[in-house]
Structures are given as C-alpha cells and as structure tokens.
Amino acid sequence: MVVVIANDLPPAVRGRMKLWFIEPRANVFVSGIKDNIADGVINYLINSCPVTSGLLVFQKVNYPPYYKIWGIGDTKRKIASIDGLQLIFEKFQDI
Question: What is the pTM of this model?
C-alpha cells in the first residue's frame, strides 16, 4: 500500500497517478499496488516531481516498523527518525 500526500503536483504526474491511485481527497492518493510496483512508482515520483510538490509518501513494507516514509520538497511537516522509527511532527519546536 502506498499513500501520497502532496501540496501540488504537475499535471503530467497527476495524470499518471490516476493509473495506480484513487484520490479520496484533493492531493491525497491511496493505492494497494504490490511492493515491486510501489518501488517503481515511488522512484517515478521522486524523479518527476519538483521540490515545490511537497510530497509525503507512505509505503507499507514487510519489515518492522512495517512502513517507510519519504519527504520530497517542502512538506510543511518534519520527518524524524527515533531509534529507527520514522515519525512525522505536525508542529515542531526546538527545545
């Protein structure tokens, strides 16, 4: 399973996304594609989307913690890794 949350996508990328994903809400894409196809789709997104796209990509994987997160561009959220566990901070304050 792959979930993509975007700030803005180029029209060509949005059109390709419609092949693999449903869009239950604007700029939120969900797909149940298999792992080997998911890797290819995620590589396509990384290589085709400009930094202004602000992508957050969540992928289900077969090893703990059973998900992987990619952040591309300004996602308006901070991705942190704590003891190998990726977390997303909605609001981040320096301590």
Answer: 0.81
